[in-house]
Amino acid sequence: MIDYHVHSNISYDGKSSPQEYIDIAHLKGIKEFTFTEHFDYLNGVSNINLDNYYSSFKNLTIPDDLSVNFGVEVGFNKHYKTTIESAISKYPFDFIIGSSHSIGGFEINDELFDSRCRSDVYLMYFNEIINNIKLFTNYDVYGHLDHIVRYGNFDDNIFDYINYINIIDEILKVIISNGKGLEVNSSGYRFNSNNPYPCVDILKRYKELGGEIITVGSDAHKYWELGRDLDIVYELLLKCGFDYINIFHNRNVSYVKIKK
Ligand SMILES: [Zn+2]
Ligand SMILES: [Zn+2]
Asked: Which of 8, 67, 76 is closest to 221 using CA atoms?
């Protein structure tokens, strides 16, 4: 299996060392994975030292039968577009996930829902995505598209896709027309949604609209989460009509057939 969304303790919220992931990979049936450490700029401050990240990556001991790539998960924030883009251009990343972890410069958290109804927050989030993907182009796949569903402490964290069909269509069309891909993130299964992020309906719609580029990731923050629930995601992708997933090396995309 291949896991293209992994955070070590180089990310502010990661719990395991990079080497711990490498050491467990074989046991987890992983033959290739990509570190995608968080790079978010909030309130004028970056949450990572990219120099340290790059030098620690170069010093890893990686066995010959394992492929480990140097990636990053960029939190789009229009207020720091120039700073973010010039920082990421300095490093030879294999792969870049673009995500929205903030709305209007404020971090997404449960408190957003305190004074707003659920659908208003969802619409704010999807509008933030539209603005971000029209502004930022230096990324390969868009990350965990509907992960807003995990916030707000609702009992039913199932995404009611049908109510946001138009804005999701707009997002998917921008992603496709810009030649970018969609990430399928299995962490949804860990947050009780019984769906990956994005949900099955969005994956089917992406396919209908001509979307082809897909990466699959666990969003592991601890070494034992490496590869978690990816087998379910691969099955789901086959059912949605995707026969291939994608990998990236030096930002170049290749296709890998999903084993049936
Ligand atoms: Zn993320
Ligand atoms: Zn992540």
From this structure: 8
Distance (angstroms) between ligand 2 centre and the Cα of 140 equals 14
Q: What is the Å distance from ligand 1's center to 126 Cα?
A: 15
Q: How buried is residue 54: exposed, middle or buried, by Cβ count under 10 Å (0-12/13-18/19+)?
A: middle
State the Cα–Cα distance between residues 164 and 154, nearest whole angstrom.
Answer: 18
Helix axes 165-177, 200-208, angle to 10 degrees: 50
Ligand closest in space to the Cα of 148: 1
pLDDT digits (tens, 9 = 90+) for 59-94: 999 999 999 999 999 999 999 999 999 999 999 999
* Residue 67 Cα to chain centre, angstroms: 19
* Cis? peptide before 198, omega within 30° of 0: yes
Q: Which domains does the chain have, with CATH numbers?
A: 2-257 (3.20.20.140)
